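Look over what follows to help learners.
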Amino acid sequence: AQLSCLARLLAAKNLTADFGSFPPDLLLFFDPSEVRAGSCREFYARASRGNLELLPRGSARRMRLLRGALTCLGVRGSRLEPRQLGSLGALVCDMEPATIPASGPAVLDSLKLCPALTGEQQNALNALLLTGNTEYGDPSSWDLRTLQDLGPLALALNQSTLSLVGEAAREDFRRSIAAAYRSQGHSQREKSLILLRAFAAASSSSRPRMKRSADRCLSEPITTSSIAGDILTLDYTPEQLDLCLSNDVLIENLEALLEQPFTSEYLQILKKKVDEIFPEGIPEEQLKRLGSLCRLYSEQEISRWPVTSSDTLLALLNPSGEKCEDSQVPQLLSRFLSLGGSLTGPLLREIEGKRLCNLQEEQLQQIPAEAIGAAGQLDISSCSQPQKEQFYRKAREAFASLAGTPGPYYCRLRPYLGGAPAEDLKKLANAGVAINMDLDTFLTLNPEELLKLSVCDVKNLLGDNVKGLKGAEWEPAVRAWLETQFQWELDCVLDIGLQGGRPEPPGTAIPPTSTATTPPHPTASASVTPVPTTVPTSTAITGHPSTLSPTAPPSGGPTVPSATPSATPSARPALTTMVPCSTPHTATPAPNATSAPSATHSTATPAPNATSAPSATHSTATPAPNAT
């Protein structure tokens, strides 16, 4: 959020052209519409070296960045030339899977920049590697060096590709990964485990499973010192781990054992032994130590756990290390709540908003509003619409005491506005104080509720950020909203070049853009509403063909809407004038004011049959401090 605010500040000061002096991470938050065409290649080449994980995958801001880069580089289809790949950098990670085979071997180095590939991208990568027409050659010729040179691409290899790699090369690579495991951080260990499991699966499928050759330990018994110093998977099969690891050593060293690069077969052995040690159920103190073993327990087994304290619950959900699966969160919370536990703000913060979206409706209902108020900003972006609405209602209740101060009220509600009804959004828009909603928050609003907002509502919500709406006009929710608005109102009220609105109704005089100036700011908390001058109801639902028709963007990049002429009616009814809306002021509201008055303040009444656009006038009287 701080980077986003800083980027907008720099753009406002016209410093976008000096992007070379800013770190790449900051450039990710620049508005692409502010980037000059003559230097856009350099801009995107530098921005693509930033940490794209700062922008959620699929987010509106990240997609605008990609579309801006594609437009700048002249990309028209799926194929990317080497020079384009160099400028796109990690932005290639968001391209469609078809880009990989279309671009050929040159795309491989760019794909190494991707933290993760989608399933379809992985399939496309494997198909390209299986052709043998890359610098790595045919998979059957790969050795340890080749697998290491693949770098992060090795994480995307599927069983079809791995099955062609020689067993000796697979084993050498597996050992090299296991040897480096202890010195790696948590995130790198997770990647190593993925590789170890994939290569173990390939090895087990390429040779027949050997029968159990002994019912006793054939190696040295596993001790505390061997757990601390050795990689057990290199010397013990899963069967031998079972036979060589005593129950006492397991319980004494459970956390250290879970630091080993165990695949699922090894973890199943550990679970079996733990269940044998505690046939009557795992004690609560031992539950806190389960770590990744938690993932192996069923819903029925979890329903018997003594999860009576928030400490136990947090240990099982540990967001900073090995933990239960997100899909197990509802079962864990159900057990915790059934034993008398309660969901507090700190607990919600530790659980993380994303995993809260796995909760069932009745579990969400058990969250007290005060817990939302104490939790800080929760990320509920992955929640369903009904869940967002539940969170919003609780947040609105939690922050009700701030409703008289629109700025702070908006800031606290912002993470939950995706569940807000149009009625509440209109209140924010017309509170008399500009809240300057950022575009990312605007794009999270419920599309169905967004359709109920007027052009003036949207203008007042976005405030200083309204210009950014032009860069998001092809977002589905924005496009649907545009199609419900009159084009003349988009032109006169917003005046940012948006296209796709409805034709104006017959009999409406459209104020020229050049004369549609914003009325003076009202004093205190007074606001001015748009005033139509005798617009018949019948004319509000009929119209003539629009003179502008937006062109849908082709696949591969955005397209600027183009103007197309249309027929003009031979006769039009007498014109009636519409007055543009005003914008909220930024002054601090009166201390005791609870809401902005809805009445229009004016000292002049337009003539009923006026045919020109009168200027909106406002009284200069200041409302009393206690006006409501």
Notes: The longest helix spans residues 186-206. The longest strand covers residues 508-509. The CA atoms of residues 326 and 355 lie 6 Å apart. The radius of gyration is 31 Å.
